Amino acid sequence: MSKTISPVGFLPRFFGAFGQFFKYLGSGNYAARCQLIGAGEKFAFEQAPEVVTETVEVIREVEKPTLMSASSDGALQLLQLLQQEARFIDFVQEPIDAYTDAEVGAAARQIHAGCSKVALQYFSWDKAYQGDEGARVEVPAGYDPHQIRLEGRIQGEGPFAGTLIHPGWTVTQVDLPQIADTAALKIIAPAQVEV
Amino acid sequence: MAQYFVGIDLGTTHCAVFYGCHGQSELTQLLIPQLTAPGRVEARPLLPSFVYTPHASELLDSDRILPWGRSETNVIVGQLARDLGAKSQGRMVQSAKSWLCHSNVSADEAILPVDAVDDIDKMSAKTALEHILFHLVAAWNHAFADAPLTEQEVVITVPASFAPAARVNTEQVAQNLGINARLMEEPLAAFYAWLADTPDWQSQLEVGDQVLVVDIGGGTTDLSLIAVTENAGELDLERIAVGRHILLGGDNMDMALTYHVANKLAQQGKTLESWQITGLTQACCQAKESLLDVGGPEEFSVTVPSRGRSLFNNAITSTLNKDEVVQLVLEGFFPQVTLDDQVQQGPREGFATLNLDYERDPAITRHILDFLRRSEALPTKVLFNGGVFNAKPIADLLLQRLRSLLPADCVLDQLQPAHLDHAVAKGATYYQYTKVNGGLKVKNGLAANYYIGIASPMPAIPGMAPPVDALCIAPLGLEEGGDEQVLPNEFSLIVGETVRFRFFQSNHAQADRLGNLINSFGVAALIELPPIELTLAAGESAPGDMVRVYLSCQVNDLGILMLRAHEVNSDRSWQIEFTVRESNG
Questions:
Q1: Nearest neighbour of B62 by CB, restricted to A90, A99, A181
Q2: Chains A and B: how many Cβ contacts under 8 Å?
Q3: Full domain range(s) for residue A39
Q4: Between A87, A90, A180, which is nearest B65 by CB?
Q5: pTM assigned to the model
Q6: Claim to verify: residue A110 and residue A138 sit in the same structural domain
Q7: Do the domain assignments include residue A1?
Q8: B311: which chain A residues are within 8 Å (Cβ-Cβ)?
Q9: B4-184: CATH homologous superfamily?
Q10: What percentage of chain B reaches a pLDDT higher than 90?
Q11: pLDDT score of B369 more than 70
Q12: B576 burial type by CB count under 10 A (0-12 exposed, 13-18 middle, 19+ buried)
């Protein structure tokens, strides 16, 4: 604080009082301000600065909304892991119409084992909404539409009563491996040459 | 001043590390960063104990960066080593630990991998183990930059059946990396983990109980027996017997299924290439777990996809059903045995390639029976450890088989382990924790009586070597950190020469008296170990002089048997070294 209030000595106070008498008498505006001071109001500089703790609820829309691309590195890494553990790319790149259900089924077991290994090893999972499938639930007004999606006849302000069709999935933790070189990620699987 | 106590399970197939902080009772597992693909690092709870020497062109420098920088050595340790080694031959070292107690190969002899390609340097078992331990040390130092592992209290676990020489070798590996590690037996560590996880253990054990610990790892089976006694109103625990080194484990079960499926395929005219065996083993392991699962399917299809892009062309498919798995794994490895069954030795080929001395008899129940008979034990509790027991039917069956071996009025209860894969590292940490903070200690002395061979005096008989008597130089139960024990016998030895003694170990659980002589007829019942060696440096005596010495034994604070020779009438003494048997011996 640059300005402070320091007490005035008796003599300057004695002579000053006469001047103040006329100033008070002559200006209605000044008199009104003196009355406020008399009632205990403080100057702005005397007040301790107040920290604003209120969060701003709504982020203002930037003038021109832009779309972002998710980083492709993570996607490529996931494809690498799925190919390595589950031969995932081999599977989706191969037409399967010519094979019997038994053949596809046998391969699917392996692909399933590999995919679930990747999904469980590198990600921690939880439901997006805590509740059992088929249970009656009440969605409050002002719910997060990313977390819950309403279907059917949606009307009114909420809360919305309904049936939980699918509790959703949410990733609580990502533990993807560290890598030395992101440029090499485009090679999902190296060529294999037996020598 | 050490801040942490650290337990390291330096396993035959996997390593794990646990640690605790001084002043806290919580024990935590260290995640071990390792390469899982070229240029990719993941922190995992287990480090596969595999060492791979890549070809110069195989990996770029940037592919081998670990969180603590690029390794200065040319080898890779962990998951990537295992994956690369499964696909290319002659570059990977595995089961290095089991080579430490090989009877014909020195732990310092550079012979691994046995099928090495021409352009790599072979390494010794100790070097391989040092690479693995170095990785664990680096992982620790990376996670605790201000508390390097060399300054912490470290416990390394070894098989209970490890001979003195193998213990010394393990200790030397740790010391080469600046670590003063205490050695601890693995089944005992598994038991400590049970104590750590069972706050009311005192209500589960009673005086007179004998706890059998069965630890089936990937490649080895380790047995120990712990007795519950009473001391001044408190329960007291003592490890009273350990089994021999059995190279038989969970991997054998997967191999049994693999060869069974390979046979079935061969009958259909499909022969497998070696790379398909690896894939098939993995598929069989999966099938085994699924089929043995409670409520699992009756049949499981085992598929080895082709290596090409198509998953279907040239894919090899067979099926395994529950009966086959029960027959091969349960009946094959855990058959019903009767009390007079012996471990089957089976004939050995005259010429065998240099390799580990794998077990001939796959029946784990017979090995356990053999152990119980040697140690004259009647267990009342059993504790299982090792990933094999994740399959509940295996644990149930083994429990049932063990019960059938005991007299009808004996009760055998199973102690419930909290986890089967990490118990050894956790128990080792808890052991050090109780050592620092007080708490119970399971007494574990020397696991066997040790003897040296001495030619017995007798008149010369043509065509007959003088028979050898055995002199007890370290008795069973000798406690670690105890006083040096002195033998009453004296020997006259020539200075400046290396003297070799034949070295034996007893195979029963009765303590012998120090200095006791077993005559040549009893020696046959002992197990012969690689010889021990004593070199008397000449010092002030002239070479060729005779000196009179007496021997002493002691188990030092780190759990290692030390044998020394002392000169009578002076304070000179010499260390006796453990060696290996000559290959033709």
A1: A181
A2: 62
A3: 11-46
A4: A180
A5: 0.81
A6: no
A7: no
A8: 87, 90-91, 94, 107, 111
A9: ATPase, nucleotide binding domain (3.30.420.40)
A10: 30
A11: yes
A12: buried
Domain tally, chain A: 3
The alpha carbon dihedral of B100, B101, B105, B107 has a sign of positive
> What ipTM was estimated for this complex?
0.71
Domains B4-184 and B250-333 share a fold: no
Binary contact (B305, A110; C-beta < 8 A): yes
* Chain A residue with minimum CA distance to B302: A106
pLDDT in tens, A67-95: 888 888 999 999 999 999 889 999 999 89
C-alpha distances (whole Å) from B74 to each of B34, B132, B178 are: 15, 13, 21
The verdict on residue A78 lying in a domain is yes
What would be the CATH architecture of the domain defined by B204-247+343-419? Answer: 2-Layer Sandwich (3.30)
- Residue-wise pLDDT for B421-436, tens only, equals 889 999 999 999 888 8
**Residues B99, B101, B102, B107: what is their CA dihedral angle, to the nearest 10 degrees?**
60
How does residue B584 score in pLDDT terms, banded at 50, 70 and 90?
very low
At B351 the pLDDT is: 58
- How does pLDDT run across A58-70, given as a tens digit for each residue? 655 556 778 888 8
* Residue to substitute from A110, A115, A123, A175, interface B, most B β-carbons within 10 A: A110
Residue B143 pLDDT: 95
CATH number of this structure's domain B250-333: 3.90.640.10
Q: What is the largest CA-CA distance in chain B?
A: 82
Strand, helix or coil for residue B132? helix
Residues from chain B contacting residue A175 (CB–CB below 8 Å): 42
- Cβ neighbours around A179 below 10 Å, total: 21
Which residues of B are less than 8 Å from A179 in CB distance? Answer: 39-41
* For A111, nearest residue in chain B (alpha carbons): B311
User: What residues of A are in contact with residue B283 (Cβ under 8 Å)?
Assistant: 110
**Structure tokens given for B223:** 């047995």
pLDDT number for residue B581: 53
Confirm whether A57 is domain-assigned. no
Q: Which residue of B has its CA nearest to A102?
A: B301
Beta bridge partners, B547, equal: B493
Clarify whether residues A85 and A118 are in a common domain.
yes
Enumerate the residues of chain B whose CB falls inside 8 A of the CB of residue A94. 309-312
